[in-house]
Amino acid sequence: MLESRVRPTKPPRKLIKSQAKTVFRQHKKIVLLVLLGSCSWLMWQGYQNLAAKQNQSQLAPLSSAILPLRTVNPTARENRLQTIATENKTKTELQIKDLARARYLLGSDLVQQQKGKLALPYLQGLGQDYPLLRPQILFKIAQAHQQNKDVWAAQRTLKYLIKTYPTSPIAANALLLLEEDRANNEARLIEDFPYHPLTQKIARQRLAKNPQQFKLLLLLATYSRDQDLNSIRDRLVLEYPAQLTPKNWEAIADGYWREEEHRKAADAYIYATSTPRNLYRAARGFHRNGNWDTAKRAYQRLLDEYHDSQEAGQALVYIANISSGDEAVVYLEKAIAKFPKNAPEAYLAKAIVHERFDKNLAADQARQKLLNQHSDSSAAAAYRWKTAQKLAAKGNTQDAWEWMQPLVKSNRTLEQDFAPKALYWTGKWSIEIGKLVAGEATFKKIIKQYPQSYWAWRAAIMLGWEVGDFDNLRPLSPTLDLKTSYSPLPIGSSALQELYLLGQNHDAWLMLQSEIEQPQQLSVNEQFSEGLLRIAIGDYSVGMQEIWDLTKRETPAEIREWEALRQTTVYWHGLFPFPYQDEILNNASQEKINPLLTLSVMRKESTFDPDIDSVVGAIGLMQIVPPTAKWVAEQIHLPEYSLTNPADNIKIGTWYLKHNHHRYQDDSLYAVASYNAGTSNVNAWLNQYDIADRDRFIEQIPFPETKDYVEGVFGNYWNYLRLYNPTIRQKVRSITDY
Prior knowledge:
Oligomer: single chain
Radius of gyration: 30 Å
Number of helices: 42
Shape: globular
Distance between the termini: 48 Å
Largest sheet: none
Helix content: 55-70%
Number of strands: 0
């Protein structure tokens, strides 16, 4: 056993037995585990053969006995893990693997509880039987020795780990635990492990003492994806431009672009390597910032240097938008002739240009070509929807319905935000003109093609599904299936996948950082995996944002990868996780309010960030302002509380949400709207607008933020219902096939 080389005294087996003997009365089964510390060669060979046979996606067979325990707390799972680790019946290859997994988790749990002495018998010798995680095992052995006050053994183990696995990310953790030559160890971290969060922490500490350190500024701008780096990027651009390479400029520009600092990104992309992507983003950044002349020059450079690229097609449409009439038409005709993918948008833009100069016949011809030649396009759908809305506003419901029929009959799923809304109103128009069968088919189409949409919930209501409506949603207590499930990450080494299977999410996240090749240009699967791991370690807001930001992907290949992920349950669970389950369910039960409504408000308010605050002083998960919290606390006799404490915030927020419902006779639409806009505004709207049709009432809300808030909260509610309620989940699956 290689671990034995770093131990200070007795031969390995004697040492293990000696240590086990001292704790026998506390953990009787440890003696059996000691014997397992030197598993037979055949057992080890069986494990190796299994690992060789399985590919990455098969590393985590769903039959593993560990899977139900991966998210269970250490105390609750200890007995079951010991049983798995000590069963001495004839074992299959999977059971051999699970034996090693159980020992690893038992040892890890004890180290986490600062019980190193008890952890050592589980961990020592395990690396021979579990080579996949040998660096992690060595590190935990070192931690256990340290907790056991055996400093010499701990230091020797750390040195052996660093020497044997010099590129493992866990070696970076080991370097910081070495007591000798700390300055040199930190320098090695900076040189060899720039992606490591410990390295980035050291870089920030050093910059706080001495800000004039180009190398550390560049390290953070290149490798970190924290959300507070724009000031560092600014310094690099303003103070060190001559020292930046095109690759450096690209990393800085990508960071600005991700943070939607489009003008700064555009400036940086100009100095980056000349590629279609970089030139397109430079031009688009100037365009979005209103620098039209600069944008035109940047678009023209892209067209000159990469005239056949896919970016060139979109550039022709955008440059037309900021050009004079005749010039714009020339650009659009080029797009139509050379780039079929961009032709629909170009036809629509061409019609707008002609109309601007009263060339109505030419405008009509452009629109007709759009409808005839590209009837399934997003541009054609947008034009049809705009026209139908105008017709409906004039009372021509029949004509509006007819205009939308090509969109209803199309099998294409449009990703534009207007699509499910357009279909929903078309379904309502169907009902109004007596076409009930057509209306039902349209509502089902919404659920099939846009199951995540707020409008899918409205469609389900129209279909008569028992999903709760505005006026009866509050008292519902839907059945919830909250069992955790497991799916392998779409990318990652065998070790990364194994750590994720074990629920060792911090270690898995660290491993992922070491495997990402371009930190500022994550692939779709890298970004999705990182988002899932962020959520798994409790960083919900950042993780959900990473998954949501996949919607911003630009290339056809990336969009296809994203669309494939959207067909999986794990994608939607990533966007709609269910944290703080006990607090939400208990308080909802106490206040007799639908728990999914509380959860949905919380997701909209804070994306589950317990420390978030707003410009108006709202704090925590449910974004409660201190005066309201003080008043609620008095009502519920809560003398001490903290709005950044999840339990307190949920308790106060749930009661206040119930109170808002009481104000409006348990109508959730008005209660939720007032949670955002205040009671006085909602009361004014109730007096001002017709409330007979709730959909029309929401359309009339004069505050865009509140309109978005209402649709966002109830969209959240629908998604939690379709994901976690078995009945509705099955009904949706019967339509969507996934």
